[in-house]
Amino acid sequence: MIRFPRTSRAAAVAIVAIGTVALAAPANAAQPLPFPFLPFLPQPAAMQPLAYAPVEQAAPQVQAAPQDDEDSTTAELPARLKRQIVAYQTREAPGTIIVDTPNTHLYYVLGGGRAVRYGIGVGRDGFTWSGVKSVTRKAEWPDWTPPPEMIARQPYLPRHMAGGPGNPLGARAMYLGGTVYRIHGTNAPSTIGTHVSSGCIRLTNEDVKDLYARVSVGAKVIVLPDSRRAADAGNGRRG
């Protein structure tokens, strides 16, 4: 009878046990870790247990940079409609406002052959007008009360709207005496450079704040006629 050393006998028993388990396991069963009782043998990386559950990688969130509406709207205007100091020859005194209706520009006369030029929105077909008026009142974040003529044309309009960012008159308004017209801001800056209003003259909120700070009550306002449009109210009384 052959005698195996004690250590060799234990190894042989282990090998026989492993073979028996392997034969008894179904072919499609998950394979156990090799030699789980022999810690000195390295385990394949794919079979090593995870210390924690895998983290699902979510798509990175795109965070829009905060924007100031007034600054961004001005930046989006075409170059010709952006506020700028330009050469402008006129005999009118400094502080006078001249509205160039056909070219959708408003000039604030500085004197010395210069003026601040703003891009504006003006009256649509049938609602342009011309004449000489004066600023009789100024208001910050003005309330809006549509005149009866406007309500007759657009019955869905509110009868009164408190001032604020959603108000059509925008951040500032300068009222033109003897008319229902105003020079005012707008919460629709895309209308600057167009003929869209019911006769009022609109600027971006940033530009109307700048103009408002320059203009005094009593300032002269000259509105030039729109010679390219046949329908010119001309009397300053349309709504």
From TrEMBL:
Pathway: Cell wall biogenesis; peptidoglycan biosynthesis. Residues 95-224 form the L,D-TPase catalytic domain. Residues 58-77 are annotated as: Disordered. InterPro entries: LD-transpeptidase, LD_TPept_cat_dom, Transpep_catalytic_dom. PROSITE patterns: LD_TPASE (PS52029). GO terms for molecular function: glycosyltransferase activity; peptidoglycan L,D-transpeptidase activity. One of its GO terms (cellular component) is extracellular region. The active site is at residues 184, 200. It comes from the Bacteria. GO terms for biological process: cell wall organization; peptidoglycan-protein cross-linking; regulation of cell shape. CDD domains: YkuD_like. Keywords: Cell shape, Cell wall biogenesis/degradation, Glycosyltransferase, Hydrolase, Lipoprotein, Peptidoglycan synthesis, Signal, Transferase. Belongs to the YkuD family. This is Lipoprotein-anchoring transpeptidase ErfK/SrfK.
